[in-house]
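Researcher: I'd like a structural prediction for the single chain below. Treat it as a standalone chain; there are no partners to consider.
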Amino acid sequence: MLRKLACGAMAALVLASGAQAAKPVQEPSQGFRFQFVTGDDSALTQRITEDLYKRLVPIFAGFRTELAQHRRMLYVAIGPAALREVASKRCDCVVISAFTSSQVYRSIMDQAARGGGHPVASTAVYAEPAPADQLRLAALLYRRPVRVSAILGADTAFLRPALEAGKVAVLDAAAGDDINRLLNQIAQTDVLLALPDSAVFTTESIRNILLSTYRHKQGVIGFSGDMVKAGALATTYSEIEDIDAQVAEIAGAYVAGGELAPPQFPRYFRTIVNEGVARSLDLTVGDEVRSFSRRAADPAPARRP
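Model: Treating it as a single chain, here is the predicted structure.
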């Protein structure tokens, strides 16, 4: 069963393991409600919700009842399991998804719409890096114009226009395609931009992809720190606090004006580089690469009752 953490402007955050689902709290003089929906009680999830609480409470506490009564319940769905539960409901509510990839977010919301569920409005801060930031990282690493390729499955095909606008050579992967054949088609490019598409990058295929690109002297811009540790060249990545800050900004804009921002890639990030892979590609990693980042402000301290 998914945990639901209900928060009003003055509500205490429920974090105890195994706690019962809490009802949203509406204080007559303290604005409207938000609620966390999570898939587990892990230490990582608790870290996320504690940080989000600090960021959201001051935002919600600043708006009083006359404005607030016209707003809907706002759910923050942390991870795919939580999003799946909230998306299946038919409710007069707003959902902000966090820590779920663009591919999975779109799949869940499409399934919910076909099944008759679907919140009134939803948006997301995706889990994976922004392609534009990844392309900028590649340019910083190579310090020259580079040929970048990407392999897209059906679920990531929506990224094609943005990638082609960035001069990326896009290759479509159909179900059952041999990954080695696809890699041979992009062997003349300098960089492979990896995207979290389950039709392309699986546990089994990632090792093969990294070995093949290494032999062809191609750098892989990965989509996670773990992928870089496994042999990708580099990636931008977002810490929990980076994602939480962006969620809070979206929530704040919605509370203030009723406008819900569209789904978006992480705005705040840092960079990790596999120095050994960089040396094998004859790349010198400069300070401009190591410091490539965009940082969020720290949250204001939350006052608890």
